[in-house]
Write a structure and sequence with these properties.
With about 450 residues, this protein is an alpha+beta fold. The chain contains 15 helices and 9 strands. The protein folds into 4 domains: about 45 residues, no CATH class; about 100 residues, Orthogonal Bundle (DNA polymerase, domain 1), CATH 1.10.150.130; about 190 residues, hpI Integrase, Chain A (Orthogonal Bundle), CATH 1.10.443; about 55 residues, no CATH class. Helix content is about 40%, strand content about 10%. The C terminus is likely disordered.
Amino acid sequence: MGTVYRRGRKLWVGYKDRSGRWTYRSTGLHAGQEREARAALDRIEERVAAQTDFEPLATGPITVAVFAERWVARRRRIGLREAHNDWARLRLHVLPRLGAMPITDVRVRHVRDLFHELRAQGRLAPRTIHSVYGTLHVMFRDAVIEELVDHTPCVLTRDQLGPKLDKDPEWRANAVFGREELELLISDPQVPPDRQVVNALKGLAGLRQGEVAGLRWRDLDAAARPLGRLVVARSYDNPRTKTGATRRVPVHPTLATVLEEWRTVGFPQLVGREPRPDDPVVPSRLGRLRSRHQDRNKFLDDLKRLGLRRRRGHDLRRTFITLARVDGARKDILEMITHNPKADILDVYTSLPWPSLCEEVAKLKVRRLTPEEAPARLRLTTPVTTAVHAGRDWVGNSWKSHVFSRTKKVEAPGVEPGSGKGWCAASTRVVRDGNRRRVAHGQAPGGGGRVGVR
């Protein structure tokens, strides 16, 4: 129990901090305001008790860095998929400036100066700055709930944060694929077969990257009519999608062809057996969930190899919506297929018949090209590796031996290990080049010797 006492004409309080030492501070109140001073002391002691409960083994003040780490860990435990991005934003942009400060000492001016500095540096897009601020705002809101602080210092407005715009004003208008480009991404032999399936799920069903990775074979009902049905219920290994909603997505006829060919030919040759209901529809080459970073990098490699300009894999989802609307699909029904229903209670209570959903998806005019129809492209050749692609090899013989040591193979640009595209395992030897190790190879199929730097 602390104490309230007079010091001159002011009222002071004394209390024990987390380490057990007595601490004294002025309340700013005058003599005669003992009731208000006692209330202030109670709040201080409650905050000290809350800090002890939050971090019982520590003795010093809880810093922003300590609270941020515990806060993100708690969000991960309860399954919030945004926790990973929350930690990245805090670690990269907030903690270098505010991390060492006790969380009770952070004031509005500190937050204002932080975001003025981020804007002045010019490295972050305006939307990214708003995302960082949103994470910090939620973190301090939870600190108030934990009773570690009395109020949040995150009260900035657009005047301090700036407008919420894209860094490149031309990017969003061009973040879409043409019909011919989409057909190439799901047909061209230069794109490995597993990535053709990923592109088809995004471009013909509007799935997000996490939803593609989390899709299981049991989620596919190929016998549904008039079109097959995908039940999109999870993202990666999370039990829910990004928005928490489960969606029924009609399987476009072209997508049905891609999935059937993958189920009967591609998947068994990659994994070594027939698919089981709990298997991911498109696993990684090691049989695990696909990594978004790996998929992003390989997708960019595929675009480069096809001679297409740089865009994101997520833009295939936008392409699905755009091309379907161009072909006459109704906006409101596409929204129910690709997103949550609107907040309007009638939209929430509306469940359209399955044929109505299928009718709109079937309007999308995208087909799969034959190997002869895929336009001839210049082979991507570099002094280090030469990518050789002969005809349409659905999976490639080397998929059967993708567990071989990586030191026996050299990867062509954009091709994953074991893809069967542009690999040579003959006449392998390891040579030294200064401090780097190189894997030298003999004659490649259809080309000369190659050296890959590892």
